[in-house]
Design brief:
By secondary structure, this protein is of the alpha/beta class. The chain has 3 domains: about 1-25 and about 210-305, 4-hydroxy-3-methylbut-2-enyl diphosphate reductase, catalytic domain (Cobalt-precorrin-4 Transmethylase, domain 1, 3-Layer(aba) Sandwich); about 25-110, Rossmann fold; about 110-200, 4-hydroxy-3-methylbut-2-enyl diphosphate reductase, catalytic domain (Cobalt-precorrin-4 Transmethylase, domain 1, 3-Layer(aba) Sandwich), CATH 3.40.1010.20. It is built from 11 helices and 13 strands. The protein has helices at about 1-10, 25-40, 55-65, 90-100, 110-125, 135-145, 155-160, 180-195, 210-220, 235-245, 285-295; strands at about 10-20, 45-50, 65-70, 80-85, 105, 130, 150-155, 170-175, 200, 225-230, 255, 270-275, 295-305. The strands form 3 sheets. The protein has a 5-stranded parallel sheet, sandwiched between helices. Helix 4 (about 90-100) links the parallel strand 4 (about 80-85) and strand 5. The protein is flat.
């Protein structure tokens, strides 16, 4: 009888699930590369850096036989190595080839597109500007496509107001793929106002998944008392989702890695909870959070979907050979 009363006394909560959310095509491809490499080569397979920025994904792959390292000098000579989805400087595959290592490149094709755009600008004798976050693996990888000193990094609007660029020749611009869409537009607007010679890529570099997830979180933020973004603290796109929610009607927004990290006291008084997930967070963790909420509240789940995604990236041909 007590359990029945407990259920009856649960506070009502509506959960708004944003769509799209969670894995993007680049993340899905990178994880499949590790899994299929393990099937093809056997244990262990080494991975340089986290394959994607999600602790649950990394630990799951470790359990399957993947070994994660910081640099190639930690990889033995007789085992395959995989480069993460964020991309790597050209020195990394060059060193792998020098050592005659078997390697697979799991760089997201949309990140590779940014690499090629930077190279085209450079080969046309144009200075290159990169909008991104210093120290992020993707930024390190993009800057590492060109000789040191060839890329000028601009992180925010304040830097855009002061950066000094040539004015008498075209200047090429590329961006990190996981930035805030609105913030990036602000930076570009300032640069375009200051430098009429700025040349943008033919198609915006911020990836479709980042754009779609930010559009979806804007909608649920306007309807929610709190927004919960499932993702890792070192995931750029997940952290941007929190910021977007906070700036679009829901200041009470937070990042959680999984259900066990939630302090349910923080949900007191929350009648509508928006939930989304960063591009490297699996749907399993979304389900885990929703089920945890159901243990504490009488939950009704509603879906807020802005678009459907059907993007697919092919795996490296060497995995099927």
């Amino acid at each position: 009888m007590l359990s029945i009363l407990g259920v009856m006394n649960k506070t009502s909560m509506t959960i708004l699930l944003a769509g799209p959310r969670g894995f993007c095509a680049g993340v899905d491809r990178a994880i499949q590369i590790v899994e299929q490499a393990l099937d093809k080569f056997g244990k262990p397979v080494y991975v340089r850096h986290e394959i994607v920025h999600n602790k649950f994904v990394v630990e799951t792959l470790k359990d399957k036989g993947a070994i994660f390292v910081d640099e190639l000098d930690e990889v033995p000579d007789d085992v395959p190595v995989i480069f993460s989805a964020h991309g790597v400087p050209k020195t990394v595959p060059a060193e792998a080839e020098r050592r005659e290592l078997t390697y697979l490149d799991a760089t997201c094709p949309l990140v590779s597109k940014v690499h090629r755009a930077a190279e085209r600008f450079f080969n046309a004798d144009q200075p290159v500007v990169l909008i991104g976050h210093a120290g992020h693996p993707e930024v390190i990888g993009t800057m590492g496509q060109l000789p040191e000193g060839s890329v000028t990094l601009v992180e925010n609007q304040e830097q855009a107001k002061t950066v000094v660029l040539p004015i008498d020749i075209p200047v090429g611009l590329v961006t990190q793929t996981t930035l805030s869409v609105d913030d990036t537009h602000g930076v570009i607007s300032i640069l375009k106002e200051r430098y009429k010679n700025l040349e943008l890529p033919k198609k915006e570099d911020i990836c479709y998944a980042t754009t779609n997830r930010q559009a979806a979180v804007k909608i649920i933020a306007q309807k929610s008392d709190m927004v919960m973004v499932i993702g890792a603290p070192n995931s750029s796109n997940s952290r941007r989702l929190v910021e977007v929610a906070q700036l679009n009607g829901c200041p009470k927004s937070m990042l959680v890695q999984r259900a066990e990290d939630i302090n349910f006291d923080d949900l007191d008084g929350i009648s509508t909870l928006g939930i989304t997930a960063g591009a490297s967070a699996p749907e399993l963790l979304v389900e885990e959070v929703v089920n945890a909420c159901k243990e504490h509240f009488d939950v009704t789940v509603k879906f807020e979907t802005v678009t459907e995604e059907n993007v697919f990236f092919k795996l490296p041909a060497s995995l099927s050979e």
